[in-house]
Amino acid sequence: MSIIEQFLVSQIFTALIIFCRVGSGLMVLPGFGEGYVSMRVRLLLALSISVLLTPLLQSSMPPIPDSPLSLLVLLVGEIMIGIAIAMVCRFIISVMHIAGMVIAYNASLALAMQFDTTQASQGSLIGNLLSLSAVVLLFTMDMHFVMLRGLGDSYTLFQPGVFPPVDDLAMYYSRLLSDVFRVAIQIASPSIVIGLLIYLVAGILARLMPTMQVFFVIMPVQIFLALFILSAIYVSIMMEFTNFFTETYGNFLQGEI
After folding, report:
1. Does the CA dihedral 202-204-206-209 come out positive or negative?
2. Which of 29, 78, 92, 233 is 20 to 30 Å from 11 by CA-CA measure?
3. Can you give the pLDDT at residue 118?
């Protein structure tokens, strides 16, 4: 094999390895991996990023495997790394979904369901509002470049050719999910407090007037107070989510897993 052929084969191999990690990450990243984004757009973006990163990461690539099985294991490992990195962002986005569901429950709007594009499942109306607002905020603040850069910088954290540390990632995801639920409850805490007070008043009214349709009477009050509180703390919710995203994703890319 001539020098030119060896060079072309190594370049194609490097681009393939990078494409597996970047392409799998783009399939899961918030905003990029949604169902309403065209598959062709994601494919072209993954190919473009792979071509741009090929000359930069050529020296850090492992040698070409001798057998198809070794190549398959290498590609599967790169795909798992890309999905693992993107799932961190997806878990962080789920903060807004959980907080919106808790707020909707305290507002008696939990049964008002709509398809949530960020979770690919049914979600509450308030959860959809907060989730879509979070995605729009990330793109408005150019945080999507941080997510894309994280895929490129991940080669310093996860060496290509080395199978990802599944046990360490599992422990990290368990801690991340606990932090996600904690932040979601903190965001929804004003609505939780108001909801408890409303149910306390409803319980007193039910004891004083047993024939009164208490839940029918308090439902408009619940909805009004929940929407009023949501509008009052909306900016604070977005700021808390932004701080949580930058801190959590930044620590992950620095190897704190």
Report:
1. negative
2. 29
3. 66
CA nearest neighbour of 31 among 124, 178, 140: 140
* 176/256 Cα distance (integer angstroms): 12
Task: Give residue 108's pLDDT.
Answer: 78
**Do 151 and 21 touch, CB atoms closer than 8 A?**
yes
Q: What is the DSSP code string of 31-48?
A: TTSSTTS-HHHHHHHHHH
Say if residues 148 and 251 touch (Cβ distance below 8 Å).
Answer: no
Please tell me the distance from the alpha carbon of residue 20 to that of residue 83, in angstroms, as a whole number.
10
Alpha-carbon distances of 93 from 137, 138, 234, rounded to whole Å: 11, 10, 16
The whole-angstrom separation of Cα 193 and Cα 225 is 11
Residues 6+ apart with CB under 8 A from 179: 244, 248
Q: What is the pLDDT of residue 183?
A: 92
* CB proximity list for 19: less than 8 A, separation 6 or greater: 46, 47, 50
CA distance 195 to 116: 24
Q: Where are the beta strands (DSSP E) in 117-182?
A: 121-124
What residues in the chain have per-residue pLDDT under 70? 1-9, 116-121, 256-257
Where do the structural domains in the chain lie, given as residue ranges? 3-253
